[in-house]
Design goal:
- The complex is a heterodimer of chains A (499) and B (519).
- Chain A is of the alpha/beta class and 499 residues long.
- Helix content of chain A is 65%, strand content 6%.
- Chain A has 21 helices and five strands.
- The mean pLDDT of chain A is 91.
- In chain B, strand 3, helix 4 and strand 4 form a beta-alpha-beta unit.
- Chain B contains 19 helices and 14 strands.
- Chain B has a seven-stranded mixed sheet with strand order 4-3-2-5-9-7-10, sandwiched between helices.
- The chains are: A alpha/beta (499), B alpha/beta (519).
- Chains A and B meet through helix 12, helix 13 and helix 14 of A and helix 13, helix 14 and helix 17 of B.
């Protein structure tokens, strides 16, 4: 009788807990949808997104070819292609796919947090994750980043499930997410590297068969990835369509970490936030509590934060620049989990105070990122294109630099003036974007200006030669107009000849 | 009773990584960046040299903490158990004497060394009556001098003159209640004829009472955990004045307990080592004592330890003592030099303040680059502290250690001037337990930061340098806050007395001083 009563109580308790967790997650998912639809969804198409849309207008084979020449892997584009086939290919529909991945990522993150820590940490960490301005930004971007984050979260979930207790279900989940993950972003391998490092130091704590099974899983990942790897190698001659990235400095490293917390802020705010780094030591000092051990799960998340950042940074220094905060979105879930568990280890009142402070900071950052027109990542190609479309005539010419900004421009452009780029690039032709040469600038300019009345020069995504192009036109033609459309998107209008 | 601090183990890879990061950090700070102001740069480098010394000696100490010396459970030499008393409340003395008399050992006599008479304590006669009533011997000193050391030496002489003495003597402070197995677990090591003393941890059973007791104990754990266990391997156990057993012959060889130093136990231990004797540290709690329960007592305890340790550095010239091994010299110097850290803490705290007022910096470097080398170094060092102390080292301990810079500087001043500085703790407002005057340096620092930020803001606006230095200042202030809070009036504290350092020197034990509050 007593046992039955106890079971009923337990059952009721579990049901209540599940109900509360479900309501909490539904609220956060609804919040993410709300933020996306209200703030980020309606924003102008950005360069990368336009590239995604252009790439997915092609056949599946065409997508594979284009992506192999890019710096990415094809899973997201294939999914997007299918998505568009059924639901349409407008911007909002395409962005919806990323939002769905983010919305799914919230409960997945909660599961991971719940697996690694207690209920309180899980709730708080999931709240931070859902409020993250960084995640919310990419939830409305037609790119693979939220899918990447979702897969790494699930992969970490299965990895820690295996660490806790090996099961066939966990192994299948682990292998599947790993295979999908490496086809979503190359940096997924950094997450797997973190797991290898963790395993090396903790193999004794894994189930006995873990090593053998990991080898098997790794074999499956390698075998399934091999065709793509070979295909990319076969396309090696025609690669390098990627934007120029600069070698990162330590500032970029800390900027990335700051962006995980507060998203994209103006340079001055970013500088101020990054300069506060000594307080991170205080945050660690406050975590020095009696018997407050770093759990193995925390150790894993620490490695999952440090390893990808360090690997990307080192590769960027010694090989070629690849360090972009969005590529490192895989770090964000682990980073939030570590931070949340650290704060949870503080004395109760201090912990509450820090939690409230962090939530307020993230909410404020999210709000500022949403409404501030100077948010650095906002690229208002729509506004500038609409302006040019409405004011240009067939006797005008539009010049875009960098050349690949033709993607978002072309998406919105309805004007009559012809479009060209400096350096000149025909994106329908196979092969990389031609390089810029100072020696041919005048020749190119003359070709462009011939027979045209006005020139609309749209400069964005400086590839190192923007200033030279600007100076050339400033020195040789009369400027009629200048507009700064959005951060790092500038329009110059020059008079070429009189009627 | 929490004794996890004694379960020490640190992975060697972590220790090696910590050394590498420390050296790399020092090298980069010293050589890789453009120097700023020469004076500030020199001060920074001095501070960093000190940090390197602290990290390296700490790692050297805790490298191996499992040393197990020879022991034999079949030996039972006679032991005189000394309980040093100087006016503590009778109930405390009674508990200790009763526990001592109940110890599970065949041959021992318990002596209450009653210093109440020479220390002008009202209850000295009551102590005599209590001890006799319980069945212990009482030795009441009539001639003052030498504080606790003098009390012990007097007892050694009295007992020696009266009858054939036991070869060993156990020393317990009045508030350190021995476990029944205290003697059985310590005497066994005297099978080695070269062992001079066996020290056990100084456990504070009242650690949970308040912030002061908690922080005191958490600081102690690092010392009595990995540090003392590491020193054991290097034959450098520190003599701590209580909860220990000594070989009388070794004591006699060094002229009994040293009466010339305020840190009589520490110095006596060093003299014993110098004579070639061995020391043992038993990593097991065998007696339970009391931590200082109020801020003032804590302040005095730390002052006495700092003053004594610095005395050792400046008076006893540790590095050139001929008969100490290199390991012992390093151990004594690293223990004593801990109390120099106050200078470094203050120096580091003043760097951002100097920037606020003058714009001067020690090195010209991107703040982010500095972060990139500093953060791994400090995080790994913190983790080493945590792992080596079996996660017993806490923020409170760290905050109290760093905030004690004012105590350390006070002690340093006292050593250099050789003055018996007198300080009063009576609150000007007559509030009981208000020790705000003892944290004036910390409050002054906060004031300087506020003023400095205004000056710097007027000079250069909200620059990245200003924000970075402000962050460092906030870091320091956050470290000082628990210390300042402990000094504020508290309903549990009701100490109100004038304190004179000369009285301090006459007092007998740390724990007596820890119990100065009026009950």
């Amino acid at each position: 009788m007593e046992l039955r009563t106890n079971l009923q109580t337990l059952n009721r308790k579990l049901t209540n807990e599940m109900l509360i967790a479900s309501l909490f997650l539904i609220f956060l998912m609804a919040f993410a949808v709300f933020v996306s639809f209200l703030f980020f969804g309606p924003l102008s198409l950005r360069l990368d997104e336009a590239q995604s849309l252009w790439q997915t207008r092609q056949s599946f084979k065409g997508i594979l070819t284009t992506i192999s020449q890019d710096v990415h892997v094809p899973l997201y584009h294939m999914v997007l292609r299918i998505w568009q086939t059924f639901l349409g290919n407008d911007v909002l529909t395409a962005r919806l796919l990323s939002l769905i991945f983010f919305v799914l990522n919230i409960p997945a993150f909660f599961l991971l947090a719940r697996l690694a820590y207690n209920k309180s940490v899980a709730y708080f960490a999931t709240l931070l994750f859902a409020l993250s301005p960084f995640m919310n930004w990419y939830s409305s971007e037609i790119r693979m980043y939220t899918l990447f984050s979702l897969l790494i979260t699930l992969n970490y979930y299965y990895f820690l499930s295996i660490y806790r207790k090996s099961s066939l279900f966990a192994w299948i989940g682990y292998t599947l997410t790993a295979v999908l993950g490496v086809y979503t972003h190359y940096f997924f391998f950094f997450g797997l590297t973190a797991q290898v490092l963790f395993f090396l130091f903790n193999y004794k704590h894994f189930p006995k068969s873990a090593f053998k099974n990991f080898i098997l899983a790794a074999g499956i990942v390698v075998v399934t990835f091999l065709p793509w790897g070979l295909y990319v190698l076969s396309q090696a001659d025609s690669t390098d369509m990627s934007p120029l990235l600069t070698t990162p400095s330590t500032v970029d490293l800390f900027n990335a970490v700051t962006q995980f917390m507060v998203g994209f802020q103006t340079d001055s705010v970013n500088t101020a936030l990054v300069s506060l780094w000594p307080l991170s030591i205080l945050v660690a000092f406050l975590g020095l509590r009696k018997d407050s051990r770093i759990t193995r799960e925390s150790m894993f998340f620490i490695i999952a934060v440090i390893a990808p950042l360090a690997i990307a940074f080192i590769i960027s220094i010694v090989y070629r620049p690849v360090f972009l905060s969005r590529y490192l979105i895989l770090v964000l879930p682990a980073f939030i989990l570590i931070l949340s568990s650290l704060i949870a280890s503080y004395p109760k009142r201090l912990s509450r105070a820090f939690q409230v402070l962090l939530v307020l900071v993230m909410l404020t950052a999210l709000g500022v990122q949403a409404v501030n027109p100077n948010t650095p990542v906002k690229e208002d190609y729509r506004a500038v294109t609409e302006y040019i479309s409405s004011t240009s005539t067939p006797r005008d010419v539009v010049v875009l630099s960098a050349p690949f900004t033709v993607y978002p421009f072309d998406y919105y452009y309805t004007g009559l003036a012809s479009i060209t780029t400096i350096p000149y690039w025909d994106r329908k032709m196979p092969g990389p974007i031609p390089g810029f040469s100072s020696n041919t600038l005048e020749e190119e300019a003359l070709r462009i200006t011939e027979n045209n009345e006005r020139l609309f020069l749209l400069l964005s995504y400086d590839q190192g030669y923007e200033e030279e192009i600007r100076n050339y036109f400033e020195n040789n033609y009369e400027r009629l107009e200048y507009q700064k459309i959005s951060p790092e998107l500038e329009l110059y209008v020059y008079k070429l000849q009189y009627n | 009773m929490k004794t996890s601090f004694l379960q020490t183990y640190t992975p060697k890879t972590l220790l090696v990584l910590n050394i590498l990061l420390t050296i790399a950090y020092f090298y980069i700070i010293t050589f890789a960046f453009k120097q700023g102001n020469v004076v500030l740069f020199s001060l920074l480098i001095i501070g960093e040299i000190f940090h390197v010394w602290q990290v390296i000696t700490y790692i050297y100490t805790v490298w191996e903490t499992d040393y197990e010396p020879k022991k034999n459970h079949s030996i039972h030499p006679a032991v005189d158990v000394f309980i040093t008393v100087a006016g503590e409340p009778l109930e405390i003395i009674e508990e200790t004497v009763r526990a001592a008399l109940r110890m599970d050992y065949p041959h021992f006599e318990v002596y209450v060394l009653n210093d109440g008479f020479v220390a002008n304590k009202d209850n000295w006669q009551a102590v005599e009556a209590l001890a006799e009533g319980l069945g212990a011997h009482v030795i009441t000193r009539r001639t003052p001098g030498g504080a606790k050391a003098g009390n012990i030496n007097n007892a050694l002489e009295v007992i020696g003159a009266l009858h054939e003495t036991a070869p060993l003597v156990a020393i317990l402070d009045a508030d350190h209640v021995p476990h029944a197995d205290f003697l059985t677990k310590t005497v066994v090591y005297f099978i080695d004829p070269d062992v001079a003393f066996v020290q056990t941890p100084q456990y504070y059973k009242n650690y949970a009472l308040n912030a002061v007791t908690k922080s005191s104990w958490e600081q102690q754990q690092l010392f009595f955990g990995p540090i003392c266990k590491g020193k054991n391997r290097l034959n450098s156990a520190t003599m701590c004045g209580t909860n220990m057993v000594l070989r009388k012959r070794a004591l006699r060889e060094v002229g009994n307990v040293c009466v010339d130093s305020i840190a009589e136990d520490f110095v006596t231990g060093m003299f014993v080592h110098e004579k070639g004797w061995k020391s043992i540290y038993v990593g097991e709690v065998l007696a339970e004592g009391l931590a200082p329960e109020d801020f003032y007592s804590y302040y005095k305890q730390q002052f006495r330890w700092a003053r004594g340790a610095l005395d050792v550095i400046f008076r006893y010239n540790l590095l050139f003592r001929k008969n100490l091994s290199i390991a012992q010299k390093i151990q004594y110097l690293s223990s004593a030099s801990f109390y120099l850290s106050g200078i470094i803490v203050l120096m580091n705290a003043l760097l951002p303040v100097t920037f606020f007022f003058t714009g001067l910096v020690p090195i010209e470097v991107s703040s982010m680059l500095l972060a990139l080398i500093f953060i791994p170094y400090i995080f790994v060092t913190l983790h080493t502290l945590q792992r080596s102390s079996n996660f017993s080292f806490t923020f409170s301990a760290l905050a109290f250690s760093m905030s004690s810079f004012s105590i350390h500087l006070h002690a340093l001043y006292s050593v250099f001037t050789q003055k018996k500085a007198t300080f009063s703790i009576t609150s000007k407002q007559g509030i009981k337990g208000n020790y705000v005057r003892l944290v004036i340096p910390h409050l002054l620092y906060i004031g300087l930061v506020i003023l400095g930020v205004i000056v710097a803001f007027m000079r250069e606006g909200l620059s990245a340098s200003l924000i970075n230095n402000l962050a460092w200042s906030l870091f320091n202030i956050a470290i000082f806050i628990p210390f300042i809070r402990a000094a504020l009036p508290h309903k549990n504290y009701n100490v109100e007395e004038e304190y004179d350092e000369e009285k301090e020197e006459r007092a007998v034990s740390d724990q007596v001083r820890a119990r100065l509050r009026v009950s």
